[in-house]
Amino acid sequence: MMRRASALLAVFAATALSPPAPLRAQPNTAPPPNPQAIVTRADLALAYLTFDRAFSEHPPSADKLGPLSQRFDQATLAFFAGRNADAVRSIHAVIAELLAPGAPPGTSAFAIRATIEPHVYRRTVGGPVTLRVVPLYALADTSSSAVTSFGVRVVSDGGRELAATTIALAARAQVGAPIDVPLPAAAANPPKGRYRVLVTVAAPGMSEPPPPAPNAVPASEWFVTDDDLDAKRQDLTRRAA
To answer: 38 or 206: whose pLDDT is higher?
Structure first.
């Protein structure tokens, strides 16, 4: 299982960080996007890396290894069939089983992509700071009326919490449709540095962000600087030439 994960990671590594292709305008009559295509290679790479870490830190018992290996194989087949969302969802289920064997199945904190926009924030320019949440796949049966709440926290490398909020998503939430939430004013002038966006699954009915949990999922990173990155790029290009 570990060899298969490493091999697939090599496939994703070459393209996971590649810049996306330019968006092209589509006519209003265009069909809705394929839910399977919402999951990017970066999402797949993150899922496999998390699986690799969970498997190393919480190796399954001998009697669990066979069933987990079969489920991992199903995720691999889904990937090669182009069903990225199914592949990621299956990997998330395997990760949950590794971290909490025998626990009732629940929604994974990885079911959403949580990022801060803009990804690199220049304090000298300012502007609004927004949390963007994108469901990667259906959270439950679309006929269900269930609501899943996610606690999202923005924390500095030093452990300082900059912002916290709760996002409630219905089972019918459109896959791939971004949900933008303005962050509090405190996030408009943060100290320079790198921040982590952490996601946990909140208890049903909880309206406040859940307390910090050791098993919070690191969904993404956010960078704050005073530097003019365009000027730095031009300078580096000139020096390289």
So the answer is: 38
